[in-house]
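Hi C.,

You asked whether I'd gotten around to modeling the 310-residue construct. I have! Everything is below, sequence then structure, no commentary in between.
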Amino acid sequence: MTSSSAGTGAAPGPAPARRGATGAAARVPPHAYFVVSAVFHYLGPAFAVLLFARVDVLGVAWLRIASAALVFALWRRPWRTWRRLDGRTRRLLVAWGAVLAVMNSCFYLAVDRLPLGTVAAVEFLPVVALAALAARTRRNLAALVLAVGGVYLLTDVQLVAEPAGLAFAAANAVLFAAYVVLGHRVARDDRLPGVDGLALSMLVAAAVALPVGITGAVPALTDPVALAAGIGVGVSSSVVPYVCDQLAMRRLPRATYALMVSLLPATATVIGIVVLAQVPTARETAGVALVVAGVALHRERAERGHGKGR
């Protein structure tokens, strides 16, 4: 489990396809990219939880980030784009990279202590505020209420039992909101072709996370199974979902994307059942149903002009 325009509000409607989203990529509905991202957003971390038995938590986080950075470096060679960027865009990418590094580390520290579905529910809470900023119709406000109610039911956190887990989950949640804001700016910046902005930020993230993650990752460097698993987690957690996020963010208003993020607790709950045998209670199942109902009820406003948005 962010942004090129200068404005302060969300765009009134889907942005037109941008450079790097042409051809087959532009013909795929942006909501489809979000669904793929939602699945992989927690599928990779679910496998990472299984890897914690062999590698330290922060070591797994760094392996995820570093392997994704390596894939992007070989695929995009983003340093060629970096040379053409101005100082403001470079600062944006460095900020996003720092957010990615700390967010992923906090996320793994949280899922090491709390169920995946609970962390996902907490992760959603700040992001819903972004949707609330643009929920200007009764229908969308009702959708927001349903989604928040569903997340409330899903959030069954034992405050006394796992205060550290909750603290890491809360930090991850704030950083995930920053990821959404900054990611939208990057996705809609025409100076960043394709996913070069993501590739550059992932290289920054690998460098930022290195001091706290490399020590824990060292055992995996001599363990072929753990190393292969770490690379697999990186591809499934940071390459596939983040690329899909950029393709979705390029064409979806920020508020619409933020509300759709409320689907993440539902996907996390399902993946928790399948991969980690974390079976939800009746309360959690009702929460998933409310989240899905809220997303289904939401409608974008009719587009009056493309304008600039996040």
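If it helps when you're writing up: The longest helix spans residues 196-221.

Thanks,
B.
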